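User: I'm curious whether this sequence folds into something compact or stays loose and floppy. Could you predict its structure so I can see for myself?
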Amino acid sequence: MLGAAGSALLALPAAAAPGDPDFGPNVTILDPGMSADAINAILAAASGESEFSTARKAIFFKPGTYGSAAGAANPATATGIVLGKVGYYETVAGLGALPGDVLINGALHVEPVHGAETDPWNHQSPGSLTQFWRSMSNLAINPIQRPTDPNAPSIDPARADPHQLRWAVSQAAPMRRVDIQGNLTLMGRYGEYASGGFLADSRVSGTIVSGSQQQWYTRDSTIGTWNGGVWNMVFSGVQGAPAQDFPDSPSGDTAHSKFTTLNATPMSREAPFLTWNEANGYAVFVPNARPNASGAPWQSGTDSGTSLPIDGFYLAKPSDSAATINAQLQAGKNLILTPGVYSLDQAINVTRAGTVVLGLGMATLSPTAGNAAITVGDVTGVKLAGITVDAGAVKSAVLVRVGPANATHSDAADPTTLSDVFIRVGGPQAGSIDTAIEVNSDNVLLDDIWSWRADHGAGAAWGTNTAKHGLVVNGDNVTATGLFVEHYQQQQVIWNGNGGTTVFYQSETPYDPPSQDAWMDGTKKGYASYKVGANVTSHQAYGLGIYSFFNQGVDVRLDSAIEAPKWSTVQFHDSVARFLNGSGGINNVVNDAGGPVAQGNDAAATKYLRSYPPAGTADPPPSTGGDDQQTITATIPEAPGEFSWTIDATDHSVTLSNAANMGTFLQSTGQLKPVKVTDTRAGGPAWSLSGQVGDFTGGLSGKYLGWTPSVIVAGAGAVAGGAVASGFDSGNGLTDASVLGSAIDGHGKGTATLGGGLDLRVPAETAAGTYTTTLTLTALS
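Assistant: Here's the prediction. I'll summarize afterward.
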């Protein structure tokens, strides 16, 4: 079946009322009338998934107060509190218009993993280094945290100080729009390692303790105080953030904190989120973009944005095919991906400006035919949020594409925005790609992106989960806030567009190059993690951390962690390179500056570079001629081109073979007459050609006819549609419109020939005779 999810999904109890939208079995709606014990049982059932589980869950709290605040001063004795660990593939969120509309007395928390819970000091691994793929958003917490078992020993790692919440995570575990009415710790009770993390549009009234967190990004928030910092702590638009203070190894000025602090975020937008109220039911709120943002906008009591009624969304289920989803998008619907794993034999294509695609419960897209998972056309203001993408066994050129090559449409005031988009190449399954995310449009915002070539899990091997790049930016004026890209085999990031800005970058180089010879960029040792293209003349990046851990036991070096043209207007602020473990190391931080990192003491293993390029660096050459020059520009308009299709035969009739008796059914087969598709349009807009039959003459149902499409002659980006089985056993066969062939947005020009095998299976008792039906072909583009 097209798009069938290949996994069993956990069904949680649902508290949704009759008449509510059908969010599927993996969404649970809680209300304040439920007891704390009932809520805690649901939270416990949701939190037990393994790292690469296929289960997905979303838990929502309707507006109201949950749990008792009576035990806040002494959590060990607290009763009646809401208490639950947030586990893998679990998202918890409030349904109010503002975070304070949902108040949790208790703790929704994340703990490190220990080798022995009874001796956590001596069994800290893996700690929080693998606490990924979960989230919490849009609620307020009065922190009262203790172990679920009130009789747990005092050494239990889940204990927390009074008025303190623990969220000890690494990548892909964001907190958004939370109001912590107390303190927040980002590390485990016993100092376990962590590699986070992301906090945005939030308020923490007390102290945030970062402790063992190697790096962290906080955006557009208000905090009481911040305590701690290992290598790279970045704040933008954070009221109460620590003052700017970053070391510089080349000058020997290393007695500093590791704080990069920007007074404002250059461009910001919070992710869309689901809401509910008694009067209007469910809706999705889409916040506006904010230039030069500071603080959480909801603190004023209102948010700037648009509330979209739920009936404007198609609520997709994991069993939906890509063709079904695309048909709904073509019809003008926005899209909610309910929790689950979506197997896609073609990309989800977003072709309408302003479309919202919102994933719930870590909804996961998995290409099956070498296709992209999701593409955005040459349109403006699209919002993609809460989506995980797993590469498939058939190699994909790209998984997420924003805009076709040479895209022309953008809107600086309403940028297309990707929020909480997480890529995995290997890990849950073997996978292979060239590029994970490709941005071709201008004025795009990337907010909390983790693009990960797996270093562990299924298919994690140098020759198996092959993948060149985690992100390629070709558009101008693209902004990334919270960018995590790791372990790709060539450059992690290539930035070719002008006017780009990155605020916070975290990257580990690949662990597994088998030798230096296997990892060479021409004559240079290794591939820079962050590469700015040679033709770029303007770029800004703040708070970049690049780390090495070559674990194959051979001496592998990276010449430059960051590579960029040396112009005064291509600037890097607060960069660090760090040797984590293993062998080899990194020779320089940016280009030839910063010095090497390798095994040794902290000074040998860590290099900080406060600013690059140095003062006095030349400006880039002017883009227009001087007094003694003329600039001549010629514009040759591209021909508009056309899209057409025709049956490539003079005789349009198909005669199937004489029916063969197969026991329970009679079977006739044949070949569809070839269909030629030509597309010479500029930009390569997506197209799809579908077929549908009515009933045969003589009263024989058309559902008995199925087909297996094929591409006879490749061209125009054509990909064959999925096979449709005869409806003899089940289903509607070709009486449902079914894709013969299609192409994604941005495909090349050309001509393709499509064909297909026909399969008719009718009941064995069908009367002898000649039966005829008509296949109608319809093109959409």
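Summary: The longest strand covers residues 750-763. Helices lie at 36-46, 322-330, 602-605.
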